[in-house]
Description:
The chain is mainly alpha-helical.
Amino acid sequence: MSNASLKEQLQAxxxxxxxxxxxxxxxxxxxxxxxxxxxxxxxxxxKTGQNRPKWLDxxxxxxxxxxxxxxxxxxxxQDMAPLKKGIKQDLVKRLGSxxxxxxxxxxxxxxxxxxxxxxxxxxxxxxxGMARLDLEGQTAETVTADEALYAKERLEDKHKVKxxxxxxxxxxxxx
Length: 175
């Protein structure tokens, strides 16, 4: 299979997935009265009692698929390790050669990779000299000082945003 045909397949996947997801988004934007009538698809609620966005469920499902199909590279939060640079291209290539995974799950895994590498737990693994893993869990390279610094800054930026979020500021004024 050539890279061009794989690219075309993945683009088609994205279009199919986009068409599949769009009607759901459209449905969610109906008037309040229509939402009250249609209670067949209740929204999930997280531990704080807030509605969870659908994209989060989708991303977490994709991460679970990654863990199931590539357990040596994608691990639980406490066992995470930095991934090889270019892992997305490796993932696309590998998924293109696996016929037993449905195309929607392949697209979900590829999209969920971004979620996985942008978690706080992943950023915390990015320490200078740490081994970066490929899809088989083999050491491919190590984290450089610049990469470790970048991850640390990203983590600090996320912490600042969270600290200054309106919900958190409201809690601080109440206490």
